[in-house]
Amino acid sequence: MDRPHRAGPAGRPARRCPGRPPAAPPPAPAAPRAPVAPAAPARRGRVPNLSGQPWRLQRRFQKLGDLRRRTPDEITAATGRPSAVSAAVAGTLVRWRAIASTGYHIALELDADERCLGVTFESSV
Asked: Is 14 within 8 Å of 3 (Cβ atoms)?
């Protein structure tokens, strides 16, 4: 036996089972991946993103004044995209939330004609 033996536990030679083929070598390391450039941010036109600035979001709603009979496009142009849109009894419920150390949350209900019926919920902390 001129073949060298692999060492087993505690430095003893490893035993080889008579009917078993030798162990396969470990797989070669995978080729490194090329770095992927981050995707360009989506252009949102003139819609501001005020999610982390509750005082600004609240001020923009105040500047709009009475929201009744306004369209969602008019409100979104002044305040930014809503955080959530969901179905409501009379039409649609649209919510804006700005969360930071303090927060502002407002929910508007829209009728079937997509006109604002009024503020259903408003909270400022």
From this structure: no
Tens digit of pLDDT for each residue in 68-111? 999 989 999 998 889 899 988 878 999 988 876 568 889 999 99
Token pair listed for 52: 């982390």
Q: One-letter amino acid identity for 45?
A: G
| Cα-based angle 56, 87, 76 (whole degrees, multiple of 5) | 30
pLDDT tens across 37-73, in order?
Answer: 555 554 545 555 555 567 788 888 999 999 999 998 9
CA nearest neighbour of 71 among 117, 18, 114, 9: 114
pTM: 0.56
- Element (DSSP H or E) covering residue 122: strand 116-124
In terms of Cβ atoms closer than 10 Å to its own Cβ (0-12, 13-18, 19+), residue 46 is exposed
Number of Cβ atoms within 10 Å of the Cβ of 102? 11
